[in-house]
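Board notes (copied after class):
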Amino acid sequence: MSERDIVAALERRAGAKPEFRLSELQKDLGTGQSPEHLAGEIRPHLDSLGLTLRPSGDDYVITRRGAGCLTVDDAGRERQLAFFRNPEVPGYIQRLVESYIVRKTGKPWDDPAVLDRMANAILVQKSRYWKEQRVSYRKAYQVLGYLAYHAPVYLVQFEHIFWQVINRGLAKPNMRILDLGTGPGVVPLAVIDLLGRIGSGSAEVYAVERSQEHIEAYNALVPAAAAAQRNTVRVEKPIREDIGEITGRDLPDRIDLMVFSNVLGELRQMEIEQRADLVVALAGRLAPDGTIVVVEPADLANATAMRQTVRAIADRGLTIHSPCSFIWGTACNPARCWTFEQKGDIRPTRLMERLAEGKDGYRFMNVDIKYSSALLRKDALVQHAYRVPSGAKFARFSHLRRHVDRTINAVAALMSGNLGDDRTKVYKVCDGTPGDPVYAVIPATLRGPNRDALRDIAYGEIVQLYGVLVRFNKDHGAYNLVVLPGTRVEPVECPAGNGAGTEAA
């Protein structure tokens, strides 16, 4: 197969679909070469064809690059992927935090008295969090405790989310970013660090925060981090305001990325509908092709409330870009929608390790990354424009009660990693129609290739399940789709879409 033939086939496939898998190109070419080898052959031609290539399990996804998208070269991409393989708060940020502790306390950052007061602040914050009470950050040690316990995970967490935004072609080469409820500036620090690592892209960063103590920490950390990276992130002075009371007039316009990170759930005085009204009002400052990021912790209360808020926002005219796919063209019912992503644990910071040296040290170790998030758009762009074809023999999840103890065909988005264990694997799936939660279950007794049938399917990707057994779990009020030896699991080749028929109003 000549290089000219490969490029011609690539052009034809890209002209027909805005997003496709490398395995589809392999079928077009009828070639037996490995995906890695074929990827190497097409890489030199991607820029000239306006395409991007990214790994996806054992395959690759090729996407038509939109006008004005931020591009990352292979070296920058590999640096970021290497960071995710062994994630930790970069040394220069750890040193900035440690220096700030010295400045605030007048003592060494690891002074036993300082560590003890931080530990007490962390315990109080955790107690209020689990009691679903609003956490205060009006005192110095409350902010220092946040920097020690919460900030490390949230920083790496947002790098995952920002990387997702970039990979989906939603980031611009020059971005205007607004972080609402920034705290000590964790989201801006993540943006600075990631852009510095990949070596491309620039940003203007704006932030809103009501706590003066948080703003003081922000001013000590964020501009210094941008200077240390020597990249093109310009940090604006944070706006001191409560986001529950701020008006759009106080904010910059044409925002490309508007971030609500672990903040909407803290507005406990607001009902779901009021939170949705707030986001929609602030979205008036968003650029026509801008993106809103909403992220909350993965626990049941916050993750479920977050999905309900996002649904309410969509009911007011914005579009859920991802991870939800409304494949039947219907609006969903998120009342029992507990779904989240999980990434690899981070390495503890030096500060975290010192805090964990004392009694009950495990209480100060926070390294696992689990979060619930959504991307929303004004321009009706969605990650997957797939709709179930008319006449297709798939059962809607809202009709599963009719099929208990029968085998059916189903199609749905994968909405979790393995929630079970190595023996019985459990994955949350959703087609946008269920009233009760639905899980794909690979039983411990199953042998053969189907044991790993869902392992490499990415979060939010759509799969077809042919021949799954429907069971109802009375204890949890949920349906299980049990994968059998004869079950066929196939990822759906999903076109990206600009929202034609994206979801019911």
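Comment from the instructor: Residues 499-505 have pLDDT under 50 and may be disordered. The chain has three domains: 3-65, 91-377, 397-491.
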